[in-house]
Amino acid sequence: MSSASDKDFSRLVLEPIGIVRTSLATKVEAARQPRAAQGASARIELFPGRNFEHALEDLTRWKLIWVIFWFHHNPGWRPKVLPPRSTSGRKGVFATRSPHRPNPIGLSVVRLEKIEGLNIHVLDADILDGTPVLDLKPYIAYTDSHPDAGNGWLDDRPDDPVAAYEVTFLPLATEQAHWIETRTGLAIEERIRSTLALGPEPHPYRRIRRIDDGMQLAVKEWRVRFSVEGRDVRVAAIVSGFRESQLASDSDDDVLRAHREFLQTWGELR
Questions:
Q1: What is the Cα–Cα distance from 269 to 13, expressed in whole angstroms?
Q2: What is the tally of structural domains in the chain?
Q3: How sure is the predictor about 172, in pLDDT bands with cuts at 50, 70 and 90?
Q4: How high does pLDDT run on average in the chain?
């Protein structure tokens, strides 16, 4: 009987079939699981010239699809990791969904919205912008769903990270979010809603902290001021996260220019 050692598996070559386009640029901006990314949109761009148009035939008949991808921001792996939802310390990486794996392969189930040519539009995506896609497969309910599978160590903390708070934007915050989206292309309102709906309490993974006059969420270089009353979150205003010295510098960086224009429009709100 042959074994793995009888064959040369020392090097396997994987070739991406496409790339993910989304507003999520860094790891701190992404949900930790697809179910925690409800409503987050993304577009999977398949590479041309490889006959993928035919490979996509019949995929629209499925509501959910598996996306197999490469964690391209992870330089190495860790045998034990500390998952965000662990209440009892570090876990073996093979017992988690951590991206810090020997082979940084990711697996997410997303909701298929539509297909336009080689562009696949999906929802509930927890994948970062620029992520290489290795494969796509349909989610088949009768084979992929196993209600009796159990939750392993997650039974120590069985609550699912589903939206539990109602997020409301006050008029000023609504206008500011629209300005930012128009000027920079950052879908900041969507990001704010999806993050705060999961919980507005201070949390390092969601970049939430208390400040003197309320609560603050960091979204890239922007700072979002909000308050909480019961299960209601009220977003009051958005301010720049840059220091005055940075804004006054001679840098012609487009991000800084956008923040300077924002201050010219909305004034100094700190």
A1: 52
A2: 2
A3: very high
A4: 84
User: Is residue 84 located within the same domain as residue 115?
Assistant: yes
pLDDT, residue 207, reads: 83
One-letter identity of residue 39: G
CA distances from 221 to 26, 53, 74, 94, 243 (A): 12, 39, 23, 34, 10
Of residues 173, 170, 169, 166, the one with CA closest to residue 230:
166
Beta strands in 29-156 (DSSP E): 42-46, 64-70, 80-81, 91-92, 105-116, 119-123, 132-138
Alpha helices in 84-169 (DSSP H): 141-144
Torsion of CA 108, 111, 114, 117, to 10 degrees: 10
> Exposure of 169 by Cβ count < 10 A (0-12 exposed, 13-18 middle, 19+ buried)?
buried
At 231, list the tokens.
């299960």
* CB-CB contact of 46 with 17 (8 Å): yes
| Most distant pair of Cα atoms in the chain: their distance | 75
Cα(225)–Cα(217) distance, integer angstroms: 7
Q: Which pLDDT score, from 0 to 100, does residue 99 have?
A: 86
pTM score, two decimals?
0.61
CATH assignment of the domain containing 261: 3.30.2310.20
Same domain, 152 and 220: no
Q: How many CB atoms lie within 10 A of CB 185?
A: 9
Q: Is-contact 173 238, C-beta < 8 A? A: yes
